[in-house]
Prior knowledge:
Blueprint: H1 2-44, H2 52-72, H3 74-80, H4 90-112, H5 117-126, H6 128-146, H7 149-155, H8 157-163, H9 165-180, H10 187-200, H11 204-213
Helix pairs in contact: 1-2, 1-4, 2-4, 2-9, 2-10, 4-6, 5-6, 6-9, 9-10
Bound molecules: protoporphyrin IX containing FE.
Protoporphyrin IX containing FE (HEM) binds at residues 54, 57-58, 61-62, 64-65, 68, 101, 104-105, 108, 130, 133-134, 136-137, 140, 173, 176-177, 180-181.
Amino acid sequence: MKAWILTKTSKYWKENKRSLVKILHPLAHIGSVIPFAVDLLDFWQNNLGANPILEITHRTGRTALTLLLISLSVSPLRLLLNWPQINKLRRPIGLYASAYAAIHFGIFIILDFNLQWGYIFQEILNRKFILFGFSAGVILLLLAVTSLKVFLKKLGKRWKKLHRFVYAAGFLAALHFILAVKPGVLRPWYYAAIMLILLSFRLPQVQSWAKERV
Ligand code: HEM
């Protein structure tokens, strides 16, 4: 009975995994835009609490990190489920993560610091958590720009190497979150734990373990 169920499920999975990506693709776009729409609505309705700038900074930061985690989970899912088609979702979700990071940074430099570059650079250099966030942001921006098709052709094999820096961005962003909150707050540690699990899929041992399972 168990074998019959497994065979049926695996046949169903093989036949439908391509179509599932076709459904997930628009959902990825809709799901990524929703947090921004909610933020705009809350801003419009004065629904951002006593410190709206800090609240919107937190929200955009958390959305950027969540989307980064989702985009980094594409490769492990591809390996574990033998699902090459899921790769199509990585680029749009990664680009949304970069866009939220850019908005997060924009809020910091415009609303927090009124474009006073001297103070902005002082903050980046003197506060470790800002430096880590800034470094992650620069990497994400670079990857977003080079994900344009022109660069894909121009960079050839180097493109793949360059885009491995997304893991460094993930690590730095998780560290930025840990240091941004008061000691004892657990939430950033959950993000960091998921990030570490996803990063571990870069290890050849973990990759061969995952390949053996399928
Ligand atoms: C680009 C430069 C960046 C700057 C200047 C920056 C700045 C900040 C600031 C000022 C805060 C608020 C800290 C506080 O509570 O006082 C913050 C929080 C945060 N940032 Fe960034 N950040 C940057 C990049 C990033 C990136 C790239 C990510 C994720 C991909 C990120 C994710 C977060 C998260 C998750 C929080 C905490 C949210 C919370 O407490 O709920 N930041 N950042």
